[in-house]
Design brief:
Largest sheet: 8 strands, parallel, barrel
Order of helices and strands: HEHEHEHEHEHEHEHEHHH
CATH topology: TIM Barrel
Strand order of the largest sheet: 1-2-3-4-5-6-7-8
CATH architecture: Alpha-Beta Barrel
Structural class: alpha/beta
CATH superfamily: Aldolase class I
Number of domains: 1
Low-confidence stretches: 139-143
Radius of gyration: 18 Å
Distance between the termini: 14 Å
Strand content: 5-15%
Number of helices: 11
Shape: globular
Helix content: 40-55%
Mean pLDDT: 90
Amino acid sequence: MLVTMKDLLRDAQKRHYALPAFDVSNYEMMRAVLDTCEEEKSPALLMGLGVDLQGKGMDLIASMIAQASRFYSIPVCLHLDHATDLALIQRAVAAGFSSVMYDGSVLPFAQNAQNTAEVVRLAHAAGLTVEAELGHVGNAMVGNETDTAINENPEDTLTDPADVVRFLEETQVDALAIAVGTAHGVYKKTPTLRIDRLDEITAVCHCPLVLHGGSGTPDDQMKTAIEHGITKINIYSDVVAALNEGLRGKLDSASNPATWPVFTFEAAREKMREVVRSKLRTFGSSGKA
């Protein structure tokens, strides 16, 4: 049975660790995350990304993960990542997601707050957790090349601590994603997190804080961010890179064009598990289930 993200983040906030949140696009990614989390005795926070939820994808991925959670002893949460419209969130609620994110970060403050409050009313009525974003975490090099940023400077869209209190009061959101120097995707240069800005935010924010763009951010910086209040860190590109590297190596060396998928994905599966295990241990969620 799925649990809400609010329950997981409350414990992370209390015990000063962070949960890695993994976008999973297919069965192999789901298994890599769930199997490794069970081995590490960590809660599992899985996310669905809009590009994978088109058509029947929403219902198929949600039902796959909900049913899979019954076979694991750890708590499992299914979170909708980066939804920008109410219709997608309504579909996620109907499909059985236990948590949703509304991302109005590119909108003016008033519109972001108004839309987020509407999502909170809808989701809370159904018993779901809501995450929102204040400030804007842009893209580095992402899987869809048309969305890759060319000249975006993370410093231009950092979260303003002065806006945080008013945003929380107006929305009653359960978790807040903030911009302190990260970007989505594969970095072109190593990011430098603004821990000073994070401290300013934690000083006025009572709810769990979320860091997007965790892939490629150096471990020491992520550990510092956790020490200063981050309780959830999103991971996608690192796992996708491991998947693609494993598949490339296997397919380049395979002589049989009809090699069974259980063998085709063998190396990819292990490489993904290595990434997942590393994040669980780095963020401190191992042993917390």
